[in-house]
Amino acid sequence: MTSDTRSIDFPTAGLLRRLAAAFYDALVVLALWMLTTALWLLLASHGEAIKPGAPVYHVYQLSLLLVAFGFFVGSWTRAGCTLGMQAWRLRLIRADGTRLRSRDAAVRFVAALLAWLPLGMGVLWLLVDRDRLTWQDRLSGTRVIVER
Q1: How far is residue 74's CA from residue 70's CA, in Å, rounded to a whole number?
Q2: Which among 24, 62, 82, 142 would be 20 to 30 A from 31, CA to CA?
Q3: CB within 8 A of 7, min separation 6: which ones?
Q4: Please, what sign has the CA dihedral across residues 11, 75, 18, 147?
Q5: Is the pLDDT of residue 6 over 70?
Q6: Mean pLDDT of all residues in 26-53
Q7: Phi-psi region of 42 (alpha: psi -120 to 50; beta: other; left: phi over 0)
């Protein structure tokens, strides 16, 4: 997709398509977390479970967050979409129709965490929003479009 304003002509994605893409992406992130956990078990805990009281527990948890961050931010900035979004013909763009920058993607990732925390209310917000945008769309100045 070019970085001109023609991309603004694409329709904004609806809730069901976004949730389907999110489900696909959750499977990918889960697989990445399993690989990350396997490495932690192999290298840091000698095969023992990493329990909440363990000295490396918080570092382990942070590594899982960083893996998810890397997957989403990397996908959004490099390709404009994640694997789940690609399957459902969705693309993430800035409000002006251009490609995301790293800063935009990082803000969107944090905003998405906030949007999902209150029982997904920030995502369901698109059902009442006049522009069909979620909290993470609004906070990051981005939108999810459906490609033809």
Answers
A1: 5
A2: 142
A3: 1, 91, 93, 97, 98, 145
A4: positive
A5: no
A6: 92
A7: alpha
